[in-house]
Amino acid sequence: MSPLFPLGRGLMVVMKTSRAWDVLRRFKETCKLRGWKTSESEDWIEADKEYHQFLLIRSIHPASFKNIVLNRKCVVREGLSYRIVEASYTAWLFSETPPSSITDIVLSNPELSRRVAIYDLSPLLDGKRMCIALNLTRSDVFHAFENYLRRELKVRLKRHPIGTEKYNVTQAA
Q1: HEC per residue, 50-71
Q2: What does the domain layout of the chain look like in residue ranges?
Q3: What b/e readout covers 124-150, taking b as 16+ CB neighbours within 10 angstroms?
Q4: Cα angle at 25 between 35 and 66, to 5 degrees?
Q5: What burial class does residue 41 get, using C-beta atoms within 10 Å of its C-beta: 0-12 exposed, 13-18 middle, 19+ buried?
Q6: Which region among 15-24, 67-76, 127-136 has the lowest average model confidence (pLDDT)?
């Protein structure tokens, strides 16, 4: 194995993360046109007095993921001060395919499945025009994000293959 391989892999991770941030940044610009409040430095959008949080991540341990989704905290900066608010919805944007244990945590808890969306952006970041989505929420912001991916970036959204019998969940309209 080449000694440069780790550096090459690290560079690829940085490039993928940068592209994912760019997708989110451009989406946030369209949110402003809808009259939704966005943050310059944090990744939340306020619409209809609810906070919709976006978390961009490469990977996470399932126990950490569960603690974060149950916590629902969102940091909002106002000038030089910060305050903590409760996020109504959280979208996880994965730059690498998340393990099934992550989606199992969301699907096994009906409350979480109504508040948490998961987007596997890895195919998109690898140059394919596809994204795998698990979104059972009623978040207008997350549905707008999906429409943005489809219309502006020409991305095909593939629905996550959920086992509805196993988890007794229904897809939001």
Answers
A1: EEEEEEEECCCCHHHHHHHHHH
A2: 22-167
A3: bbeeeeebbbbbbbebbbbebbbebbe
A4: 95
A5: exposed
A6: 15-24
